[in-house]
Amino acid sequence: MKWSTGAILQTNFATTDDAASYKVSWLKDSKGRPAELLSLQELKTDVNGEPILDPDTGEALFSYTDIKLGVQGEFVQAVDRAIVTWEKPGPDCLTVGSDCGYAVAIPGYDALDVNALSKAKTNALYELKFWEDKSRTGFINLAGGLDTAVASTQIYRFANPGGDYSKPSLTKIADPTLVFKPSKDGYYRQDGKIDGERASETGWQVFVGGQNFGVIFGDQKLREPLLKIISWTIIFAVLSVLTTFIVGLAIALLFDDARLRGKKIYRSIMILPYAFPGFLSAYVWKGLFNQKYGFINTVILGQPNGAINMDASLNNVPWLVDGTVAKIAVLLVNLWLGFPYMFLITTGALQAIPAELTESATIDGATPSQILRLIKMPLLLVSLAPLLISSFAFNFNNFSIIYLLTGGGPTNTATGYDAGETDILITFVYKIAFSTGTGRNYGLASAFSILIFLVVGSMSLISFRRTKFLEDIN
Fold first, then answer.
1. How far is Cα 254 from Cα 245, in angstroms, rounded to an integer?
2. Residue 241 domain-assigned?
Protein backbone atom coordinates (compact mmCIF):
# COMPACT_ATOMS: atom_id res chain seq x y z
CA MET A 1 0.00 0.00 0.00
CA LYS A 2 1.33 3.43 -0.91
CA TRP A 3 1.23 6.17 1.67
CA SER A 4 1.77 9.90 1.23
CA THR A 5 4.24 9.64 4.08
CA GLY A 6 6.64 7.52 2.07
CA ALA A 7 10.32 8.30 2.07
CA ILE A 8 10.48 11.13 -0.45
CA LEU A 9 14.15 11.34 -1.33
CA GLN A 10 15.59 14.67 -2.22
CA THR A 11 17.87 14.71 -5.23
CA ASN A 12 19.31 12.42 -7.87
CA PHE A 13 22.70 14.10 -7.53
CA ALA A 14 25.50 12.84 -5.35
CA THR A 15 29.08 13.66 -4.42
CA THR A 16 31.27 10.72 -5.34
CA ASP A 17 34.48 9.77 -3.59
CA ASP A 18 36.57 11.17 -6.43
CA ALA A 19 34.51 14.36 -6.83
CA ALA A 20 36.36 17.59 -7.50
CA SER A 21 36.93 19.82 -4.47
CA TYR A 22 37.44 23.58 -4.63
CA LYS A 23 38.87 26.33 -2.44
CA VAL A 24 36.31 29.19 -2.39
CA SER A 25 36.93 32.93 -2.43
CA TRP A 26 33.73 34.98 -2.27
CA LEU A 27 33.16 37.87 -4.70
CA LYS A 28 30.26 39.96 -5.97
CA ASP A 29 29.61 41.35 -9.43
CA SER A 30 28.47 44.84 -10.44
CA LYS A 31 24.84 43.82 -9.80
CA GLY A 32 25.64 42.70 -6.26
CA ARG A 33 25.15 39.03 -7.05
CA PRO A 34 27.33 36.66 -5.01
CA ALA A 35 29.96 34.70 -6.90
CA GLU A 36 32.31 31.86 -6.00
CA LEU A 37 35.86 32.01 -7.28
CA LEU A 38 36.77 28.33 -7.32
CA SER A 39 40.31 26.97 -7.22
CA LEU A 40 40.47 23.24 -7.87
CA GLN A 41 42.32 21.72 -4.93
CA GLU A 42 44.07 18.38 -4.87
CA LEU A 43 45.49 16.72 -1.81
CA LYS A 44 49.28 16.59 -1.88
CA THR A 45 50.61 13.07 -1.40
CA ASP A 46 54.02 11.47 -1.13
CA VAL A 47 55.36 8.61 -3.23
CA ASN A 48 53.41 6.15 -1.09
CA GLY A 49 50.15 7.99 -1.65
CA GLU A 50 49.99 9.30 1.91
CA PRO A 51 48.86 12.93 2.52
CA ILE A 52 51.63 15.45 3.07
CA LEU A 53 51.03 17.36 6.30
CA ASP A 54 52.09 20.85 7.28
CA PRO A 55 54.95 20.39 9.78
CA ASP A 56 53.73 23.36 11.84
CA THR A 57 49.97 22.76 11.98
CA GLY A 58 49.66 19.08 11.09
CA GLU A 59 46.99 19.91 8.49
CA ALA A 60 46.93 18.38 5.02
CA LEU A 61 48.47 20.43 2.21
CA PHE A 62 46.74 21.05 -1.12
CA SER A 63 47.85 22.07 -4.57
CA TYR A 64 45.64 24.43 -6.57
CA THR A 65 45.36 24.26 -10.34
CA ASP A 66 42.25 24.92 -12.40
CA ILE A 67 40.29 28.13 -11.61
CA LYS A 68 36.55 28.57 -12.23
CA LEU A 69 33.92 31.21 -11.50
CA GLY A 70 30.35 30.59 -10.43
CA VAL A 71 27.95 33.55 -10.49
CA GLN A 72 24.41 33.36 -9.14
CA GLY A 73 22.04 32.64 -12.01
CA GLU A 74 24.77 31.71 -14.52
CA PHE A 75 26.70 28.61 -15.53
CA VAL A 76 30.20 27.97 -14.23
CA GLN A 77 32.88 29.47 -16.45
CA ALA A 78 36.63 29.05 -16.71
CA VAL A 79 38.95 31.83 -15.54
CA ASP A 80 42.20 32.59 -17.38
CA ARG A 81 43.58 35.42 -15.22
CA ALA A 82 43.26 35.83 -11.47
CA ILE A 83 45.05 37.30 -8.49
CA VAL A 84 46.55 34.48 -6.47
CA THR A 85 47.53 34.22 -2.84
CA TRP A 86 49.73 31.60 -1.19
CA GLU A 87 48.60 29.58 1.78
CA LYS A 88 52.15 28.86 2.92
CA PRO A 89 54.98 30.38 0.82
CA GLY A 90 58.05 28.22 0.67
CA PRO A 91 60.93 27.26 -1.59
CA ASP A 92 58.54 25.56 -4.03
CA CYS A 93 55.84 28.24 -3.84
CA LEU A 94 57.60 31.46 -4.81
CA THR A 95 56.77 31.69 -8.50
CA VAL A 96 53.46 32.79 -10.01
CA GLY A 97 53.32 29.64 -12.08
CA SER A 98 53.44 27.34 -9.05
CA ASP A 99 50.47 25.33 -7.87
CA CYS A 100 50.60 26.42 -4.22
CA GLY A 101 48.34 29.45 -4.43
CA TYR A 102 44.59 29.81 -4.85
CA ALA A 103 42.67 32.58 -6.58
CA VAL A 104 41.29 35.41 -4.44
CA ALA A 105 40.27 38.08 -6.97
CA ILE A 106 39.62 38.71 -10.66
CA PRO A 107 39.05 41.94 -12.62
CA GLY A 108 35.48 43.24 -12.60
CA TYR A 109 34.51 41.69 -9.26
CA ASP A 110 34.71 43.02 -5.72
CA ALA A 111 35.48 41.02 -2.59
CA LEU A 112 32.46 39.86 -0.58
CA ASP A 113 32.93 39.86 3.19
CA VAL A 114 30.82 36.87 4.19
CA ASN A 115 31.53 37.47 7.89
CA ALA A 116 29.60 40.75 7.71
CA LEU A 117 26.48 39.19 6.18
CA SER A 118 23.28 38.58 8.08
CA LYS A 119 22.31 35.06 9.03
CA ALA A 120 19.64 34.98 6.33
CA LYS A 121 22.08 36.01 3.60
CA THR A 122 24.68 33.55 4.86
CA ASN A 123 22.11 30.75 4.75
CA ALA A 124 21.27 31.82 1.19
CA LEU A 125 24.91 31.28 0.20
CA TYR A 126 24.72 27.69 1.44
CA GLU A 127 21.73 27.10 -0.83
CA LEU A 128 23.48 28.31 -3.99
CA LYS A 129 24.06 25.79 -6.77
CA PHE A 130 26.24 26.64 -9.75
CA TRP A 131 25.41 24.42 -12.73
CA GLU A 132 28.46 23.40 -14.71
CA ASP A 133 26.77 23.47 -18.14
CA LYS A 134 23.41 23.57 -19.91
CA SER A 135 22.92 19.83 -19.58
CA ARG A 136 22.43 20.36 -15.84
CA THR A 137 23.95 17.00 -15.03
CA GLY A 138 26.35 18.46 -12.49
CA PHE A 139 26.68 21.43 -10.18
CA ILE A 140 29.05 22.88 -7.60
CA ASN A 141 27.90 23.86 -4.12
CA LEU A 142 29.34 24.42 -0.67
CA ALA A 143 30.48 21.50 1.44
CA GLY A 144 30.23 22.07 5.17
CA GLY A 145 31.69 25.58 5.31
CA LEU A 146 31.91 28.77 3.30
CA ASP A 147 35.47 28.16 2.15
CA THR A 148 35.12 24.76 0.45
CA ALA A 149 32.91 23.57 -2.42
CA VAL A 150 32.46 20.21 -4.12
CA ALA A 151 31.10 18.99 -7.42
CA SER A 152 27.95 16.89 -7.48
CA THR A 153 26.94 14.83 -10.50
CA GLN A 154 23.77 13.08 -11.63
CA ILE A 155 24.16 9.35 -11.18
CA TYR A 156 20.76 7.99 -12.35
CA ARG A 157 18.15 8.83 -14.93
CA PHE A 158 14.71 7.45 -15.69
CA ALA A 159 14.48 4.94 -18.52
CA ASN A 160 11.05 4.04 -19.84
CA PRO A 161 11.18 1.42 -22.60
CA GLY A 162 8.28 1.88 -24.98
CA GLY A 163 7.20 5.05 -23.21
CA ASP A 164 5.46 3.13 -20.43
CA TYR A 165 5.67 5.59 -17.52
CA SER A 166 3.48 3.41 -15.29
CA LYS A 167 6.47 1.11 -14.76
CA PRO A 168 9.49 3.42 -14.45
CA SER A 169 13.02 2.09 -14.36
CA LEU A 170 16.41 3.65 -13.74
CA THR A 171 19.71 3.42 -15.51
CA LYS A 172 23.08 4.40 -14.13
CA ILE A 173 24.60 7.15 -16.23
CA ALA A 174 28.09 5.70 -15.81
CA ASP A 175 26.88 2.27 -17.00
CA PRO A 176 23.60 2.45 -19.00
CA THR A 177 23.49 -1.35 -19.28
CA LEU A 178 22.50 -1.59 -15.62
CA VAL A 179 18.73 -1.28 -15.29
CA PHE A 180 17.06 -0.83 -11.91
CA LYS A 181 13.34 -1.53 -11.56
CA PRO A 182 10.91 -1.23 -8.62
CA SER A 183 11.20 -4.21 -6.32
CA LYS A 184 8.69 -5.65 -3.86
CA ASP A 185 10.49 -3.99 -0.95
CA GLY A 186 9.89 -0.55 -2.46
CA TYR A 187 13.41 0.10 -3.71
CA TYR A 188 14.86 0.19 -7.19
CA ARG A 189 16.90 -2.99 -7.63
CA GLN A 190 18.74 -4.45 -10.58
CA ASP A 191 16.18 -6.04 -12.92
CA GLY A 192 13.59 -5.63 -10.14
CA LYS A 193 14.77 -8.72 -8.28
CA ILE A 194 14.39 -8.69 -4.51
CA ASP A 195 18.00 -9.81 -4.09
CA GLY A 196 19.37 -7.59 -6.84
CA GLU A 197 21.77 -4.71 -6.36
CA ARG A 198 19.92 -1.74 -4.90
CA ALA A 199 20.25 1.60 -6.63
CA SER A 200 21.33 4.54 -4.55
CA GLU A 201 18.37 5.96 -2.66
CA THR A 202 19.50 9.47 -3.44
CA GLY A 203 16.92 11.30 -5.45
CA TRP A 204 14.09 8.85 -5.98
CA GLN A 205 10.74 8.23 -4.37
CA VAL A 206 10.37 4.98 -2.50
CA PHE A 207 7.15 3.74 -0.94
CA VAL A 208 7.49 2.45 2.59
CA GLY A 209 3.87 1.88 3.52
CA GLY A 210 3.23 2.62 7.20
CA GLN A 211 6.90 2.31 8.10
CA ASN A 212 7.16 5.91 9.30
CA PHE A 213 4.24 5.42 11.67
CA GLY A 214 6.00 2.28 12.87
CA VAL A 215 9.10 4.35 13.61
CA ILE A 216 7.05 6.83 15.64
CA PHE A 217 5.46 4.15 17.81
CA GLY A 218 8.20 1.54 17.81
CA ASP A 219 11.62 3.21 17.70
CA GLN A 220 13.16 2.83 21.17
CA LYS A 221 15.59 5.71 20.60
CA LEU A 222 12.75 8.00 19.57
CA ARG A 223 10.39 6.99 22.38
CA GLU A 224 12.14 8.75 25.27
CA PRO A 225 12.58 12.19 23.65
CA LEU A 226 9.16 11.95 22.00
CA LEU A 227 7.33 11.32 25.28
CA LYS A 228 9.11 14.29 26.85
CA ILE A 229 8.26 16.50 23.88
CA ILE A 230 4.59 15.46 23.89
CA SER A 231 4.33 16.11 27.64
CA TRP A 232 5.97 19.52 27.33
CA THR A 233 3.83 20.41 24.31
CA ILE A 234 0.62 19.80 26.26
CA ILE A 235 1.96 21.56 29.37
CA PHE A 236 3.13 24.52 27.30
CA ALA A 237 -0.20 24.89 25.51
CA VAL A 238 -2.28 24.54 28.70
CA LEU A 239 -0.14 26.90 30.79
CA SER A 240 0.05 29.43 27.97
CA VAL A 241 -3.73 29.60 27.70
CA LEU A 242 -4.22 29.54 31.48
CA THR A 243 -1.66 32.24 32.34
CA THR A 244 -2.60 34.59 29.53
CA PHE A 245 -6.30 34.20 30.31
CA ILE A 246 -5.84 34.85 34.04
CA VAL A 247 -3.66 37.94 33.49
CA GLY A 248 -5.85 39.25 30.67
CA LEU A 249 -9.03 38.73 32.72
CA ALA A 250 -7.51 40.36 35.81
CA ILE A 251 -6.53 43.48 33.87
CA ALA A 252 -9.90 43.58 32.11
CA LEU A 253 -11.71 43.41 35.46
CA LEU A 254 -9.47 46.14 36.85
CA PHE A 255 -10.22 48.48 33.96
CA ASP A 256 -13.93 47.59 34.04
CA ASP A 257 -14.35 49.64 37.21
CA ALA A 258 -16.55 52.64 36.44
CA ARG A 259 -14.61 54.75 38.95
CA LEU A 260 -11.34 54.46 37.01
CA ARG A 261 -10.45 57.44 34.81
CA GLY A 262 -8.43 57.33 31.60
CA LYS A 263 -9.43 53.75 30.84
CA LYS A 264 -9.01 54.22 27.08
CA ILE A 265 -5.38 55.26 27.52
CA TYR A 266 -4.61 52.37 29.86
CA ARG A 267 -6.29 49.88 27.55
CA SER A 268 -4.30 51.18 24.59
CA ILE A 269 -1.07 50.72 26.55
CA MET A 270 -2.02 47.17 27.48
CA ILE A 271 -2.29 46.03 23.86
CA LEU A 272 1.18 47.32 22.88
CA PRO A 273 2.86 43.89 23.20
CA TYR A 274 0.18 42.54 20.86
CA ALA A 275 0.85 45.34 18.36
CA PHE A 276 4.55 44.53 17.87
CA PRO A 277 5.48 41.68 15.51
CA GLY A 278 5.98 38.50 17.49
CA PHE A 279 9.30 37.60 15.89
CA LEU A 280 10.78 40.98 16.89
CA SER A 281 9.63 40.53 20.46
CA ALA A 282 11.15 37.03 20.53
CA TYR A 283 14.53 38.35 19.41
CA VAL A 284 14.41 41.20 21.94
CA TRP A 285 13.60 38.80 24.77
CA LYS A 286 16.38 36.48 23.62
CA GLY A 287 18.82 39.33 24.15
CA LEU A 288 17.29 40.22 27.51
CA PHE A 289 17.69 36.61 28.66
CA ASN A 290 21.38 36.41 27.72
CA GLN A 291 23.08 34.82 30.72
CA LYS A 292 26.17 37.01 30.76
CA TYR A 293 25.20 40.27 29.06
CA GLY A 294 21.39 40.28 29.16
CA PHE A 295 19.50 43.16 30.77
CA ILE A 296 17.70 40.86 33.20
CA ASN A 297 20.85 39.40 34.74
CA THR A 298 23.04 42.50 34.53
CA VAL A 299 20.53 45.13 35.65
CA ILE A 300 17.32 43.72 37.10
CA LEU A 301 19.09 41.01 39.10
CA GLY A 302 22.14 43.19 39.71
CA GLN A 303 24.86 41.16 38.03
CA PRO A 304 27.66 43.75 37.67
CA ASN A 305 29.17 44.33 34.23
CA GLY A 306 28.34 40.85 33.05
CA ALA A 307 30.73 39.26 35.56
CA ILE A 308 29.41 35.94 36.85
CA ASN A 309 29.00 35.89 40.63
CA MET A 310 29.10 32.26 41.67
CA ASP A 311 27.96 33.13 45.22
CA ALA A 312 24.76 34.76 44.04
CA SER A 313 22.92 32.16 42.00
CA LEU A 314 19.94 34.44 41.43
CA ASN A 315 22.25 36.88 39.66
CA ASN A 316 23.46 34.24 37.24
CA VAL A 317 20.26 32.69 35.95
CA PRO A 318 20.93 30.43 32.93
CA TRP A 319 17.72 31.52 31.22
CA LEU A 320 18.29 29.82 27.87
CA VAL A 321 20.95 27.30 28.93
CA ASP A 322 19.26 25.20 31.59
CA GLY A 323 16.31 23.16 30.36
CA THR A 324 13.91 23.91 33.23
CA VAL A 325 14.74 27.61 33.35
CA ALA A 326 14.45 27.84 29.56
CA LYS A 327 10.90 26.47 29.79
CA ILE A 328 10.04 29.15 32.35
CA ALA A 329 11.54 31.79 30.06
CA VAL A 330 9.44 30.55 27.13
CA LEU A 331 6.26 30.70 29.23
CA LEU A 332 7.10 34.23 30.42
CA VAL A 333 7.66 35.48 26.88
CA ASN A 334 4.49 33.81 25.65
CA LEU A 335 2.62 35.41 28.56
CA TRP A 336 3.94 38.80 27.46
CA LEU A 337 2.84 38.17 23.88
CA GLY A 338 -0.50 36.55 24.68
CA PHE A 339 -2.11 38.44 27.54
CA PRO A 340 -3.13 41.47 25.38
CA TYR A 341 -5.25 39.17 23.20
CA MET A 342 -6.99 37.72 26.24
CA PHE A 343 -7.38 41.22 27.64
CA LEU A 344 -9.14 42.35 24.46
CA ILE A 345 -11.59 39.45 24.23
CA THR A 346 -12.42 39.43 27.95
CA THR A 347 -12.95 43.20 27.90
CA GLY A 348 -15.42 42.80 25.05
CA ALA A 349 -17.18 39.92 26.79
CA LEU A 350 -17.44 41.85 30.07
CA GLN A 351 -18.95 44.84 28.32
CA ALA A 352 -21.52 42.56 26.70
CA ILE A 353 -22.87 41.41 30.08
CA PRO A 354 -26.04 43.39 30.88
CA ALA A 355 -25.48 45.79 33.77
CA GLU A 356 -28.90 44.88 35.15
CA LEU A 357 -27.63 41.43 36.13
CA THR A 358 -24.82 42.71 38.32
CA GLU A 359 -26.98 45.48 39.76
CA SER A 360 -29.70 43.01 40.71
CA ALA A 361 -27.15 40.70 42.30
CA THR A 362 -25.70 43.59 44.29
CA ILE A 363 -29.14 44.57 45.55
CA ASP A 364 -29.71 40.95 46.57
CA GLY A 365 -26.57 41.13 48.70
CA ALA A 366 -24.07 39.31 46.48
CA THR A 367 -20.41 40.15 47.09
CA PRO A 368 -18.08 41.13 44.19
CA SER A 369 -16.42 37.71 44.31
CA GLN A 370 -19.80 35.98 44.15
CA ILE A 371 -20.84 38.16 41.21
CA LEU A 372 -17.63 37.25 39.40
CA ARG A 373 -17.86 33.54 40.16
CA LEU A 374 -21.59 32.96 39.73
CA ILE A 375 -22.60 35.51 37.11
CA LYS A 376 -19.72 36.93 35.12
CA MET A 377 -17.55 33.83 34.71
CA PRO A 378 -20.33 31.53 33.38
CA LEU A 379 -21.41 34.22 30.92
CA LEU A 380 -17.80 34.87 29.91
CA LEU A 381 -17.14 31.19 29.24
CA VAL A 382 -20.15 30.95 26.93
CA SER A 383 -18.57 33.40 24.50
CA LEU A 384 -14.89 32.78 25.27
CA ALA A 385 -14.77 28.97 25.29
CA PRO A 386 -14.33 28.66 21.49
CA LEU A 387 -11.60 31.31 21.59
CA LEU A 388 -9.81 29.54 24.43
CA ILE A 389 -9.93 26.29 22.49
CA SER A 390 -8.52 27.96 19.39
CA SER A 391 -5.83 29.57 21.56
CA PHE A 392 -4.89 26.12 22.85
CA ALA A 393 -4.65 24.80 19.29
CA PHE A 394 -2.50 27.79 18.32
CA ASN A 395 -0.09 27.33 21.22
CA PHE A 396 0.04 23.59 20.61
CA ASN A 397 1.69 24.51 17.29
CA ASN A 398 3.34 27.78 18.35
CA PHE A 399 6.42 27.30 16.22
CA SER A 400 7.77 30.85 16.07
CA ILE A 401 8.19 31.56 19.80
CA ILE A 402 10.09 28.30 20.41
CA TYR A 403 12.20 28.45 17.28
CA LEU A 404 13.18 32.11 17.59
CA LEU A 405 13.73 32.22 21.35
CA THR A 406 15.48 28.94 22.15
CA GLY A 407 15.66 27.00 18.89
CA GLY A 408 14.17 24.13 20.89
CA GLY A 409 17.31 23.96 23.02
CA PRO A 410 19.11 23.13 25.16
CA THR A 411 19.61 20.21 22.78
CA ASN A 412 20.27 16.60 23.67
CA THR A 413 21.41 14.48 20.70
CA ALA A 414 22.36 11.40 22.72
CA THR A 415 19.43 9.46 21.25
CA GLY A 416 20.39 10.30 17.68
CA TYR A 417 17.53 12.77 17.28
CA ASP A 418 17.94 16.54 17.48
CA ALA A 419 15.50 16.89 20.38
CA GLY A 420 15.72 19.87 22.73
CA GLU A 421 14.38 20.55 26.20
CA THR A 422 11.98 23.25 24.96
CA ASP A 423 11.04 21.58 21.68
CA ILE A 424 7.35 21.16 21.08
CA LEU A 425 6.04 18.72 18.51
CA ILE A 426 5.99 21.17 15.61
CA THR A 427 9.59 22.35 16.14
CA PHE A 428 10.72 18.74 16.51
CA VAL A 429 8.99 17.91 13.23
CA TYR A 430 10.72 20.87 11.60
CA LYS A 431 14.11 19.56 12.72
CA ILE A 432 13.31 16.10 11.39
CA ALA A 433 12.29 17.54 8.03
CA PHE A 434 14.95 20.19 7.53
CA SER A 435 17.80 19.61 9.97
CA THR A 436 21.11 19.16 8.17
CA GLY A 437 22.79 17.76 11.27
CA THR A 438 20.78 14.56 11.68
CA GLY A 439 19.61 14.17 8.10
CA ARG A 440 16.42 15.31 6.43
CA ASN A 441 13.51 12.92 6.69
CA TYR A 442 10.45 14.31 4.95
CA GLY A 443 8.51 11.06 5.23
CA LEU A 444 8.81 10.81 9.01
CA ALA A 445 8.01 14.51 9.35
CA SER A 446 4.89 14.04 7.21
CA ALA A 447 3.73 11.19 9.42
CA PHE A 448 4.24 13.36 12.50
CA SER A 449 2.28 16.19 10.88
CA ILE A 450 -0.67 13.90 10.24
CA LEU A 451 -0.66 12.77 13.87
CA ILE A 452 -0.45 16.37 15.11
CA PHE A 453 -3.47 17.25 12.98
CA LEU A 454 -5.42 14.29 14.36
CA VAL A 455 -4.49 15.10 17.97
CA VAL A 456 -5.30 18.81 17.77
CA GLY A 457 -8.45 18.18 15.75
CA SER A 458 -9.71 15.53 18.18
CA MET A 459 -8.98 17.62 21.27
CA SER A 460 -10.68 20.64 19.72
CA LEU A 461 -13.73 18.61 18.71
CA ILE A 462 -14.09 17.12 22.19
CA SER A 463 -13.63 20.52 23.81
CA PHE A 464 -16.24 22.16 21.60
CA ARG A 465 -18.76 19.44 22.43
CA ARG A 466 -18.12 19.73 26.16
CA THR A 467 -18.66 23.49 26.08
CA LYS A 468 -22.19 23.12 24.71
CA PHE A 469 -23.57 22.72 28.21
CA LEU A 470 -22.55 26.31 28.93
CA GLU A 471 -25.07 27.52 26.37
CA ASP A 472 -27.85 26.36 28.70
CA ILE A 473 -27.11 29.41 30.83
CA ASN A 474 -28.66 31.58 28.17
1. 14
2. yes
- Give the whole-angstrom CA distance, residue 239 versus residue 365: 35
Same domain, 365 and 308: yes
Hey, CA dihedral for 30, 32, 38, 39, is it positive or negative? positive
Residue 193: is it exposed, middle or buried by C-beta count within 10 angstroms (0-12/13-18/19+)? exposed
Q: Is residue 238 domain-shared with residue 279, that is, in the same domain?
A: yes
Calculate the dihedral angle through the C-alpha atoms of 461, 464, 468, 471, rounding to the nearest 10 degrees. -160
| 229 and 129 co-located in one domain | no
Task: Please tell me the total count of domains within the chain.
Answer: 3
Range of the domain at 172: 156-199
The C-alpha atoms of residue 22 and residue 140 are separated, in whole angstroms, by 9
With CA atoms as reference, report the closest residue to 215 among 411, 408, 451. Answer: 451
50 and 168 belong to one structural domain: no
Q: Is residue 335 within 8 Å of residue 240, measured between CB atoms?
A: yes
d(CA 129, CA 71): 9
For residue 406, the cross-strand partners are none
* CA 187 to mean position of chain CA atoms: 30
CATH number of the domain bearing residue 404:
1.10.3720.10
**pLDDT, averaged in runs of 10, over the chain (474 residues):** 40 66 88 86 74 68 79 84 60 46 82 83 84 82 82 76 60 80 73 77 59 86 89 96 96 87 88 88 92 83 54 67 93 96 94 88 89 89 89 93 91 72 93 67 87 89 71 53
The length of the chain in residues reads 474
Quick check: 28 and 105 in contact, CB under 8 A? no
